[in-house]
Structure formats: C-alpha cells, structure tokens
Write a structure and sequence with these properties.
single chain, alpha+beta, four-stranded antiparallel β-sheet, elongated
Length: 206
C-alpha cells in the first residue's frame, strides 16, 4: 500500500515567486435557465498604494506596485485556486478566469460553479470564512527608495495564480519585507563605499 506524500508549505509557496495578500469580494449572478453562476471578483492588486510589509527597529518598510507593472507581464495561463494549492478551480485558458488591468489595479473575476471544490469555496467565501486573496508572481524590475524605505515593483515578469486564502499560515509577507531590510543595507553599503572612494581620491590629489 502506498501513501501519498504530504504537501508542505515550502512545496506550495515556491521560493522563486513572490506572494501578496489582499481582500476581495464575491457575488452570485442571477440564475439563468435554472443554472446558478457563482463568481469571486475583486482587485488582486492595487496600484500606487504603499503597503507596510514589515516594521523593524521603528522603521516601516513598504511596497507599492507601479501602474505599468503588468504592461508586459505574461498572463497567458493563470489559475485560481485555494491557498496556492489543490485543484484548479478556474483558469484563464478555459475562460473561467478573466483578468483586466485598469487605472486602479489588476481586477479578477473567477467562475466557481464548474467544480465541486469551487462551489464549496464559494459558500465559504460567501459565509465570510475566507476573505483574503493572494497572487503569485515573479518580478522583472523593481526600484528601492532608501529614504522612504519603499520598494516599487515596476515590471512583473509573469503572473502565476490568484488564490483565495485564509489567514496565511506561511508568513510570506514578512519574508519578502525582510528582503527590503537587506536591500536597504546594500544601498547603505554602496553609499559608504562611494564615500570612501571619494575620500581616497581627495587624499590622492591633495
């Protein structure tokens, strides 16, 4: 008898991708011909709204997404599921998941009545048991403002999934934010190195 290997959080949250959590809304469409169409919809990402990811030593480290970040992103095959794992509930490839970018952000609309898992998830969302959404992506270009401790995502390379989530068991937001602390340290080191080179040049020519 074989046993199925248990999926770990590291298996679900891949280290080569970033994950961000947002709130979202659901609604049920009016019945048509006796059928009930069930949808989850809302903004998976909002532009130019700095979000505090981490606070360290009294400093808030923030992140925001530029309104052109998705202009060249690969969104050819994006899935909608639960907690970034399990069965696919909706997908752009079969047109049960639609994505659109407007002035506010990335808007998603997922049809959930096509699978048993989707119908169960819809009821849990409607009942208020699940009220968060996360999206997984890779970054192509980002900039860091050390003065304001803010990272700006300028270009997203690929969007992998948008996922309904409960309270995240894996603190990906904190992990990503800690990378901002490291980024700031790198900026400080570069500035210090530049200042040392400047002083050395002054000593050389004086």
């Amino acid at each position: 008898m074989t046993t199925k290997a248990k999926m770990t959080l590291d298996d679900i949250f891949r280290k080569d991708r970033d994950y961000r959590f947002f709130s979202f809304e659901v609604r049920a469409a009016d019945p048509e011909d006796g059928n009930q169409e069930l949808y989850a919809e809302g903004y998976a990402c909002r532009f130019n709204e700095p979000t505090v990811l981490w606070e360290y030593d009294g400093i808030q480290y923030k992140e925001q997404v530029d309104d052109r970040a998705f202009s060249d992103a690969d969104m050819s095959d994006v899935i909608f599921n639960y907690n970034h794992g399990g069965k696919v509930i909706a997908r752009t490839r079969n047109q049960t998941l639609s994505l659109s970018v407007d002035s506010k952000g990335l808007y998603i609309r997922a049809r959930l009545d096509g699978t048993e898992e989707g119908r169960k998830l819809y009821e849990e969302i409607r009942g208020g048991y699940i009220d968060r959404m996360s999206y997984a992506y890779t970054t192509q270009e980002a900039a860091y403002d050390s003065e304001n401790h803010t990272r700006t995502i300028r270009k997203i390379k690929r969007l992998y999934d948008v996922s309904a989530v409960d309270i995240p068991a894996y603190d990906t937001t904190s992990i990503s934010a800690r990378s901002l602390v490291e980024a700031e340290e790198e900026v400080k080191k570069a500035e210090q190195a530049a200042e040392r080179r400047k002083r050395l040049l002054l000593k050389t020519y004086v």
